[in-house]
Design goal:
By secondary structure, the chain is of the alpha+beta class. The chain has two domains: 141 residues; 161 residues, Mog1/PsbP, alpha/beta/alpha sandwich (Protein Transport Mog1p, Chain A, 3-Layer(aba) Sandwich). Helix content is 30%, strand content 34%. The chain has seven helices and 17 strands. Strands 9, 10, 11, 12, 13, 14, 15 and 16 form an eight-stranded antiparallel β-sheet that branches. Strands 3-2-4-7-5 form a five-stranded mixed β-sheet. The chain has a two-stranded parallel sheet with strand order 1-6. A hairpin with a 2-residue loop joins strand 10 and strand 11. The longest helix is centred in the middle third of the chain and has 31 residues. It is elongated and about 65 Å long. The termini are far apart. InterPro entries: DUF4837. This is DUF4837 domain-containing protein.
């Protein structure tokens, strides 16, 4: 009986450590989207090192009407970081050691996973390394989370063949989205939430409608407002427009290898207490002499919107243009 028991244990250890070709097996990672595990001592976490981590990695996400952190964070000391705890998809490991190092590693303990390892000889050194490298670390985290969110979307996709036929673009959209409006030059898809909706719209404008100069953001706002007023009617003569009080954030980006203007801000219905976040990509499609515009926006009063908008951004970043 003991012989059978030890044989079974040996088989389990073999399967869990080797995938059959001599390479160590990586367990599947886990964790909610945009959740960061911070591994450092309680002393560091409660002192200035923890403060700078919270400042950099829990700062407000761009383009949301209320402050929500880029990442939700959990801290644990290094001595407890083993076994199941090492399966979390995103982590930041900061410790005092005998030299200064920064390394961003993919899949060190599980797959998919991104971990940032930072060591220094002092707390001041850790703070300096975090302040110098946090942007590249956040970029690596967010890129990995977009891919993970897209992987989850692919489990159940909506057929978007008509969108490709009419506007020459393919999007990976969850099957929960329904087509609210479809025209040759405008598509509106919507998913119902318990308290509101998330939305994707697609349309095109001529290349000369968005200049690449100091007037870019103004041109994008004008374009959005024109589409909102003419294509997205609101009850009681309301107008779906860009929120007037604050200018949106504008970035340069790429979608499907093409240059794109990325705009994040707040929409509102003029004259009514309705508003929410949007993310807009105007993709430069020189082959077809146009910008193809894809946007995701949320209407969900009294609900956290960071992860809703992140899902929308992952959908938009899946775009493939003919």
């Amino acid at each position: 009986m003991k012989t059978i028991y030890f044989a079974i244990v040996a088989l389990v250890l073999f399967v869990s450590c080797d995938n059959g070709n001599g390479k160590k097996y990586k367990q599947e990672s886990l964790g909610n989207i945009n959740t960061l595990q911070v591994i450092m001592t309680n002393v560091l976490w409660q002192d200035s090192v923890g403060e700078v981590v919270r400042k950099r990695f829990a700062s407000p996400a761009y383009g949301l009407p209320q402050d929500e952190p880029i990442f939700s964070m959990n801290q644990m000391p290094p001595e407890t970081y083993s076994g199941f705890a090492r399966k979390y998809r995103l982590f930041l490991h900061a410790t005092i050691a005998d030299k200064d190092t920064v390394a961003i590693r993919k899949n060190p303990y599980a797959k998919p996973q991104v971990g940032a390892f930072i060591t220094s000889t002092s707390q001041e050194g850790l703070i300096k390394l975090i302040n110098t490298n946090y942007e590249s670390i956040i970029k690596a985290y967010q890129s990995a989370e977009i891919k993970e969110r897209q992987r989850r979307t692919r489990i159940s996709l909506r057929n978007t063949d008509s969108l490709k036929e009419d506007l020459g673009i393919k999007l990976e959209i969850p099957s929960a989205y329904k087509i609210s409006k479809s025209e040759k030059d405008f598509y509106w898809m919507q998913k119902k939430l318990k308290h509101g909706t998330t939305n994707v719209i697609v349309y095109e404008v001529p290349l000369n409608q968005i200049p690449s100069d100091s007037t870019t953001i103004g041109a994008i706002i004008k374009m959005r407002d024109s589409i909102g007023i003419n294509k997205m009617p609101v009850e009681d003569d309301g107008q779906f427009i860009t929120e007037e009080a604050y200018a949106p954030y504008l970035f340069e980006s790429k979608i499907d290898g093409k240059f794109a203007w990325e705009t994040k801000g707040t929409w509102e219905v003029k004259g009514r207490y309705m508003a929410g976040p949007f993310v807009n990509f105007a993709i430069r499609d020189e082959k077809n002499n146009r910008y193809i515009v894809i946007e995701g926006f949320t209407h969900a009063p009294s609900v956290a919107k960071r992860d809703l908008q992140f899902e929308l951004e992952s959908i938009l970043r899946s775009a493939k243009i003919d």
